[in-house]
Design a protein that fits this description.
Blueprint (H helix, E strand, L loop, with lengths): L10 E3 L2 E7 L9 H6 L2 E7 L4 E5 L5 H10 L3 E6 L5 H4 L1 E3 L2 E3 L2 H7 L4 E4 L3 H8 L6 E4 L4 E4 L2 E7 L8 E5 L2 E5 L17 H11 L8 E4 L9 E2 H7 L8 H8 L3
Parallel strand pairs: 4-5, 5-8, 8-9, 13-14
Antiparallel strand pairs: 1-2, 2-3, 3-4, 6-7, 10-11, 11-12, 12-13, 14-15
Helix pairs in contact: 6-8
């Protein structure tokens, strides 16, 4: 698990740039919604090229871009885990959340989404289909010389995706250290969530470090081994048992 003092410091391994930023603490400090929602934004990049991708930039996106620039990095793209406004911006229960649309006013970069999520992102953000770069599971987005694999993990939403980079899994709202994303919101599917957790993410070994979309646990990250051991969502051996607990009907 990452110690507290590492959460605001870029991690270094060769030329990899990887930074976990907490809304309401590292940026958007005066935003009460950001402090309540405790979203993580991530920056993934290549120090040699100075290029970085932002994962789920929402709330004070200008501040996030400024943090990148202070590290000598520049944003060359957005990776969106899913369409919910606390991750990409839009209307959140009557609150206007700054997000990807605002970011695009400052930098002209591609927004990478799973194909199934594109219409949902358009409705949430107002960004037209031409402004989105759609993908299938297994596609790789390269930033500098750093490859980032896009892993389609439907369940929370139809086109939810996780990002695999250098032994790390950025999971959005698919998987938290404790629990998983809700399946009772528009586009949610509890059976697909079960398959995502038990099949689509099964190939990530126990040493992979999980970086979730929210700070819902005391620690900001954990290995997949620890998560599988302690997270109750992995204690149900069949889809029937899963649906008896998490089914929306």
């Amino acid at each position: 698990m990452a110690p507290d003092d590492d959460r605001q410091t870029p991690e270094r391994k060769d030329t990899l740039y990887f930074r976990q930023l907490l809304a309401g603490r590292d940026f958007a400090r005066t935003d009460p919604i950001a402090r309540q929602m405790v979203n993580f934004c991530y920056a993934i990049g290549d120090r040699a090229s100075g290029e970085a991708l932002l994962v789920d930039p929402a709330y004070g996106v200008g501040e996030v871009l400024d943090l990148l620039e202070a590290d000598g990095m520049r944003c060359v793209g957005v990776l969106a885990t899913h369409y919910h406004p606390d991750h990409v911006g839009g209307d959140l229960m009557g609150h206007a959340i700054e997000g990807v649309a605002t970011l695009l006013e400052r930098v002209d970069v591609p927004v990478h989404v799973q194909e199934a999520e594109a219409p949902w992102v358009t409705r949430a953000t107002g960004i037209g289909a031409s402004g989105l770069t759609t993908h299938a599971s297994g596609d790789v987005v390269t930033v500098g010389a750093v490859p980032v694999e896009l892993v389609h993990t439907p369940g929370h939403t139809p086109g939810s995706q996780c990002f695999s980079v250098d032994g790390r899994l950025v999971s959005g709202d698919t998987l938290f250290l404790d629990g998983c994303g809700r399946t009772d919101l528009p586009g949610g599917d509890p059976e697909e969530m079960y398959r995502s957790l038990t099949t689509r993410l099964a190939r990530f070994d126990d040493t992979t470090v999980l970086y979730p979309g929210h700070l819902y646990s005391p620690e900001p990250s954990a290995t997949m081994g620890d998560t599988r051991q302690h997270n109750y969502v992995f204690r149900m051996p069949s889809v029937q048992e899963w649906l008896s607990v998490f089914g929306n009907g």
